[in-house]
Design a protein that fits this description.
- The complex is a heterodimer of chains A (about 300) and B (about 550).
- With about 300 residues, chain A is mainly alpha-helical.
- Chain A has helices spanning about 1-30, 45-50, 60-70, 85-120, 125-140, 145-155, 175-200, 200-210, 215-225, 230-240, 245-250, 260-265, 270-300.
- In chain A, α1 runs antiparallel to α13 (about 270-300) and α6 crosses α7.
- Chain A starts with a helix and ends in a 7-residue tail after the last helix.
- Chain B is α+β, with helices and mostly antiparallel strands.
- Among the domains of chain B are: about 80-215, Dipeptide-binding Protein, Domain 1 (Dipeptide-binding Protein, domain 1); about 295-525, Dipeptide-binding Protein, Domain 3 (Dipeptide-binding Protein, domain 3).
- Helix content of chain B is about 30%, strand content about 20%.
- Chain B is built from 16 helices and 21 strands.
- Chain B has helices spanning about 1-25, 70-80, 130-140, 185, 195-205, 260-265, 280-285, 315-320, 325-335, 355-360, 370-385, 405-420, 435-440, 460-465, 480-490, 495-510, and strands at about 50-55, 85, 95, 100-105, 110-115, 165-170, 170-175, 220-225, 230-235, 250-255, 270-275, 290-305, 340, 395-400, 425-430, 445-455, 515-525, 530, 535, 540-545, 550.
- In chain B, strands 1, 8, 9, 10, 11, 12, 13, 14, 15, 16 and 17 form an 11-stranded mixed β-sheet that branches. In chain B, strands 4-5-7-6 form a 4-stranded antiparallel β-sheet, with helices on one face.
- In chain B, α12 (about 405-420) links the parallel β14 and β15 (about 425-430).
- Classes of the chains: A mainly alpha (about 300), B alpha+beta (about 550).
- At the A-B interface, α2, α4, α6, α9 and α10 of A face α1, α6, α13 and β16 of B.
Amino acid sequence: MLKYIVKRLILAVVTIYIVATLTFFLMYLVPGGPFLSEKAPSAATLAALEAKYGLDQPVTVQYKNYMLRLLQGDMGPSLKQRGKEVSDIIFTRLPVSVKIGSLAVVVALACGVVLGSIAALNRGKALDNIIVFFSTCGIAIPSFVVCTVLMFILGEKLRLLPTFGLNTPSSYIMPVIALALYPMSYIARLMRSCMLDVLGQDYMRTARAKGLSQTKALFKHALRNAILPVVTYLGPMIAYTLTGSFVVETILTIPGLGASFVTSITARDYPLIMGTTIFLAFLLVTMNVVVDIVYKLVDPRINLQ
Amino acid sequence: MKKLSILLALLLLVSVLVGCGGGNGTVDNNNNNAGNQGGNQTGGQTQEPFVLNVHVGPNPDTIDPALNSAVDGATLIIHAFEGLYSLDKDGVPQPAQAEKVEISEDGLTYTFTLREGLKWSDGTPLTAEDFVYAWNRAIDPETAADYEYMFESIQGYEEGKLAVTALDDRTLEVKLVARTPYFLELTAFPTFSPVQKKTIEENGEQWALAPETYICNGPYKMIEWVDSSHILYEKNEHYWNYDALGPDQIKFILMSDVNASFSAFKTEQILFSDDIPTEEIDAWRDKPEFNLQGQLGTYYISFNTKKPPFDNKLVREAFSLAIDRNYIVEQIGKAGQQPAGAFVPTGLSDADPTKEFREVGGDYINVSKEAYADNLARAKELMKQAGYENGKGFPAVEYLYNVEGDGHRLIAEALQQMWKELGVEVSLASQEWNAFLNTRKNGDYQIARNGWLADYNDPITFLDMWITGSGNNDAQWSNPEYDRIIAQVKQSSDQEERYRLMHKAEDIIFAESMLAPIYYYVDIYLVNQKLQNVYSSPLGYKYFMYASLAE
């Protein structure tokens, strides 16, 4: 087990390195630059800015400098948000996204598993159809529609919830629903089909035949086997959900990290693009390692070697 | 038991991550603003503090007076900082940090007297020396300020040491290169605000990020900035005109989505919104909350004058005349924009300040609805003269616009239709904003959308961008006579002469048809009926410091 983890960690570092390198060079291939605006800065100003941030050097030199600094844990300054370090931006915004994201993960997981199981147990009945219908909608409707509709109904028409910010506990409701809806629906559908698969297995019939109660058979045998694919899905899902969503944060005015993934690119804020990308890559890789370990806990038959 | 462990493992995993994130200097925006929501304000100002919630834009990149070049950033800055003069409701500069100014006969020396007892928000005295420091900092290449060229009218700009002297603590002497009629207005511009040397030297660029180090001299001071959430200002007790101030606190909600701000406005969570979704304009146009004001800016089309077929003046003029500007304004813009028959927009005054530059200069293109048929006929005639009768033999051309917002695409499609009348098939290409700027600046295009907003209330801000080699000369245009006239304007100390030359410069732009104006911009904003005494400057800056609530 330990050997496996060490191996995975080395692989993780290599993965992150490759992601960082690719991003760095792709980023410089995209036309445009951080200091362009409708009103062009004077040549002297532009030169001063480029010199200040080392952008006047050849890309390979910049790459080397960046990587050396990164090794020392320095992600560099933001080019657009003058005076701010990339690490400051990431770590002041991340907690906000994590707060909403973790709630969304819990909601999605709890509701998804329960709804999926209920649907499977009531296969073909009205309840199943209702759950399938709504989970299909949950997958099909994009989050900006969900946000806008929630904002219109709960915020504007009924005036139950604030339409922006995170100032009161109630203001968490809309973003959490908006973030959780897709993964919840996905988990519900996944859970339903896996559960149906498991329920049809011979060992389930055997368990019942040996006198095990329906509930016991369900929890002891069915759920554990059926949940494995959900665990696989959870890894990347958690990484993405915790780092926030551009759409949800923009529409509901939430100061999370998600928007920075997009705005850093449109602004050509190179260090911030690198910072957010490497951070997400790190989180994804870590989550995948964690998922593998959780696998082993859920199903001892799985051999991690 | 095992099933429990599965659940526990999952929960653990989640909570570990939550814990990780929460530990790192968490920003918690639970500021106790119960009852602070703008909509709950009901007059009783004496008991309850008057907290005004407004929206002027998203999270600003910077609120350092020297570095900012954005309109929303400027609104934030003019509430925290004040220059020698500031603009009143009618856009006229009024003494602010300065109590008076003496201007020499030749108009080249300005001697400002500062008010007595001026203080920074940290209570330390503010002196003339602070202006000397701030202005020189703004032009220092190390500072790398976008707007450093705003100081070019002051002597010593080229050498990097401005001829600005503190004769004593309360007297500031400024020497100009040439008579600059709009100089007092410039001193009201955010970039001309004083900044405190001490806080900048101690904190570097970070000084403008945190309330503790954001030392200011204006009506308000920052007490909180939560990134992408809000900036909270409070009345500055050291401000000389403290008693005139309205709101006890102003909370700028930093929204980046227009539907979000619109929704917050409708539910009275904010009392002012600087934006409205285009599709709502028709429904809101006649409501009292709707405010429409001319903005000093022009939406136009750049021709690349270095590349065929637009190196041909006749073709450029034909393309310009074939545009039905009224259609674009009424069917696409929908916001009361004015069809543009010239480049310098309405709203700028002429040598005689009671007349507008536009009135005196008149239109170069007749944009009345009735004239369109004639314009189009003339355009066809011009194409024929250029050797492209009915578009025969005309090379493939591409119109470039940026993808942000639907408006540019809709205008592009309309133009495509209009130019079909000339027998020309124009293809459309779009690029993302930053790439678009790059392409346009480098002249890698044939025709492209463009726009320009004034930096100050003088026509030269629209004209000096077209000199040969200017960084904003996207048309790659070069005209020696034009360059000469602009140089003369900048040296001239005679008002009449200056304006005559500027009109002449604009004549050349249209004699050459080097661009095709489409419309003059407007600024739309929404003000709740309860909110009074809020105003906007011609440059689009919003003034909330004197706001009050109706009973």
